[in-house]
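Reopening: structure tokens for the FE2/S2 (inorganic) cluster complex, inputs below.
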Amino acid sequence: MPNLKTNPTPSRIDICGLDEMPERGARGFEVAMPDGEPLHIIVWRDGEDVRAFENKCPHLGLPLETFPDKFLSKDSRTLICSAHGARFNAEGDCTSGPCQGDALTRLDIRVVARDAKPRLVLEGSAGHS
Ligand code: FES
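Re-run output (same inputs, fresh job):
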């Protein structure tokens, strides 16, 4: 997992600069939660659209990737779990594979301006369960 990010406030967690994300791609991050527990997340950017999910497959609870930041299909339209091939659409819904009909936990991620630069932040409790 890349980069352990610390949490300056419980309700807003800085992830990275928007320019640190590929225009169309996904990256994994490990976020330090207020309770000290790490939260592994996937940030998926598709142009202006940025979404985030907990990196925990609903099938067996494993992280989706085998290799760092390798989450997406070749056409960048679906997330793929490398363990058993489950595929997830942009909403996080499993569309095929052993957990079809289930979904990833979606997180509230936003673009905010910090020092006149756009940054990605998680809002709220970040769905930690
Ligand atoms: S753990 Fe993801 S498909 Fe089995």
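The CA atoms of residues 28 and 114 lie 22 Å apart. The first strand starts at residue 4 and ends at 5. Marking as resolved unless the reporter disagrees.
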